[in-house]
Amino acid sequence: MALMEWIKRWNFIERARLERQLLEAFERGEDLDALVASAEPGFQQEVWQAMLVRIRKMERMMAGQKPPEPR
Length: 71
Hints:
The protein has 3 helices and no strands. The protein is mainly alpha-helical.
């Protein structure tokens, strides 16, 4: 695998890991704005800021809906 392909793949994996961290924090009910503000400057903060926008959009779409029934 060429170096550039490896870097692109690593970046994708790292981005997915960081996005999942913030999504799990959302599921636990943590303060996302505080987490994003305390993120490491650079890549982590960039990913978390973008993910926060998507999470807020999901919140707006889900507003007013009943939670799913437990199985």
